[in-house]
Structures are given as C-alpha cells and as structure tokens.
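Exam review. A common question shows you a sequence with its structure tokens and asks you to describe the fold in words. Practice with the pair below. Do the first one on your own.
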Amino acid sequence: MMDLDFSQVNWDEVNKSTIDTLNMLGASGFFTLLLGLPLGVVLFLTSRSSHAILQTVYAILSVIVNILRSVPFIILIVALIPLTRLLVGTSIGVIGTIPPLVIGAAPFFARLVETSLREVDRGVIEAAQSMGASTSQIIFRVLLREALPGLVAALTITIVTLVSYTAMSGMIGGGGLGALAINYGYYRYNLPVMIVAVALMVVIVQVLQMVGDRLVRHYTRK
C-alpha cells in the first residue's frame, strides 16, 4: 500500500490554488448570472408567443443553447482559445479560464431559468395582465419573484457545475485546484496533493449546496 506523506504537500500552493478556484467561481458565476438570466427570460417569453418572428427567435436561440450545452467543456475550452485571447489577452491561468466557463455555463443556466419560469402559475400572470401590468412589470414583479426559489436552486446547480468545469480547465493550463491536482498530483505522481485537491473541491461543493438549499428554503413560501 502506498504511503501517504502529507508533509510533502506545499500548503502555500494549495492555498493559492484554492483562492484561484474561488476567484474563478465568483467571476464566472457573476457573469453567468448576468448573461444567463436575461437569456432564460427571453427564451421563456418567446416560447409563449404566437408571433412568427418571436417563434423564429426562440427556435434560433434554442438551437444555439442546445449546441453549447451539448459540447463537452474540455472541447469547448479548446475551441474557444482564439476568442478567449481576443477577449482577455490570454487563454491560460485564472483570467483565461473565465470566458470559457461563462460561455459553457450561461446556456445551461438559461435553460434552467426557462424551466423555472414555466412553473409559475399562469393564473398569477393572467391576473397581472388583466390589471394592465406592462411586460417589464410582469417580468420583474411577477415572474422573477414567483420563480425566485427555483432560480436560486438553478443558480446553485450551475455554480456547483462550474466547480467541475474549473477542474477540467486544469488540463489545458487553467489555474485553481484542478491544475494543482493534474500538474502535481497526476503528472508528478504525488497522491497526497491529489487527495487534498479533491477533498477541497468536495468541501467547496458541499458548502455551496448547503448555502443554496438554505436560500431556497428561505425564499419558498410556506
């Protein structure tokens, strides 16, 4: 049995990698919310419309979302290297990982947003319409408020998924715990480093899920 000597673990490197992972999660989660929420609302609104142009818009957006969701992230991040360099000037490290993370996660989150909005009681929407509410008022005062628990759950699922995406980004020069596990744990056969990196990612996922579940319970009407 292999002897696990954790004294060989460079804890300064572990701390740096953990901070890098949290930075990637924070930045990519913010931009995923910023892009994915409006996209999900547009998908929901256009899917309900009987107007031919809006139906065409929905069909086009739906195809784009499905394509981006279908491409494995490890392939997507390689395919986006030219775009990533154009946007942030590099395709490696923490900064170079954020654009692919957002492009990979935003369509996934948008589809979850669309699903959450579909679960809003149509009677509530029709009541708002009958009182003369505008489209923007229905979106912000009815749809998003009524769907808030589902939206929080969707965001939690998306951010947890981003944790695995950050780990995969380590295969092609991304930073964080994924890069630590691959560069030190796998390539240098340092099993203790691999165990520490995986354990920290598990802890991050558990904390995110616990916070998300608590927020969902808080916003769910009893």
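Now try the second one, then compare your answer with the model answer below.
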Amino acid sequence: VLNNEPLVTLLCTPAELEELAIGFLLSEGVLHNGSSIKNLELDEKEATVRIELSDLPPDFSKLFEKRTISSGCGKGVAFTSYRMPADKRIEARGRLMSLDDIRRLLGTFRTISKLYIETGGVHSAALSDGKEILFFSEDIGRHNAVDKLIGKAFLQSVPIEDKILFTSGRVTSEIMTKAGRNSFPILISRAAPSCMAVSYAEEMGITLVGFAR
C-alpha cells in the first residue's frame, strides 16, 4: 500500500516482506533514495506492507497504467519495462572476476538455500563483491527473490553499483530491467538468458553470464 493507496498484490514466500516491497519499488523506478521513505510498516497478520514516500515521480500515475503479463511463473505482472525516460546506460564500476571466482561462488550459491534443498521449489538470488556472497534471498518467484535482495541491500545501506547479482532463474527482460535500474555491472545465472535479455544487457552495459556452471 503506497501513500494509503493499494498498489499491487504480490504472490510470494512470506518472508522478508519489507525487503520485497522496497525492492519492488526500486525496480519499478518509483523509489530512488532512502530519504524519500517517511514511513515503512509491516502488518504480518494481513501480510501487508504500508509505505509512505515524500516524493513520487512526476509521471507516477502513468507508470502503472500499462501492465504487462511477464514470463514469470504464475503470470506475474510487470508494470514498467526498460526504456523509460529515466533509463540509461549505466557506467559499470564492476570488479574483475576470474572463472575460478565464478565457479567457486556458484558452488556456494547452489547450496545456500536450505528451502530449495528441501523442496526444489524456490528461486534464489545473491549479492557478491566478487570474492564472497554478502546477502542472499529466496522466494517462490524469481522476480521476488531478486527484489528481496535489492531491498535488503538498500535497507542496510549497502551500495550495489559495484556488486555482482547471482540468480538461479532464467534471465528475461524483466530481470535485466531490475539489474539495470539498480546499476548491477554483472549478472550471473545458472539458467538461460532470453534474446531480449541479451539485447537489454548490451544496451545497458551489463555483463551477462548465462548457463553458468
């Protein structure tokens, strides 16, 4: 619920809901800095996050006029796609990674989710500085897992412009849009990238690694 108005209902694993809400707003281009957050309140009983922002984008009402059925599981909805007026090529300040670094981090990433090991039914996302995994999130949806991770880093004031995003899910245009809007210089996935994701990565200046093994 944004500024007392219902915004969206997300089907998700009931954990890290504040992080999910903040990450969603960041990825949709609604939230840009922490000083805009006047209030953040979680009602666990109703599974509702209420957020009050001091300033909404001038074109906020238009951002949510068009809804796109995404390629996500459960016919997820993406409100805003890449090529908004504010979207631009990022100036990547990423770290250099060796193949050994990628393989080692993938080994950790693959086994970090106990819920995945138990059920095989969740996606994972991780934030890395290129040497170790700093944050980890999981959710039944791959989009949510990425948003939770983004929100977690934001709420803990950890910059991600020089970090690496790991994801377990396939990389589609929506995932690349989230990565670009949050200025990740490198995105690594064990799964397939779509042709549109590859195109977006080239346009945004992001290094994309798919089918990482």
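Model answer, second protein: DSSP finds seven helices and nine strands in the chain. The chain has a mean pLDDT of 88. Full marks require stating both points clearly.
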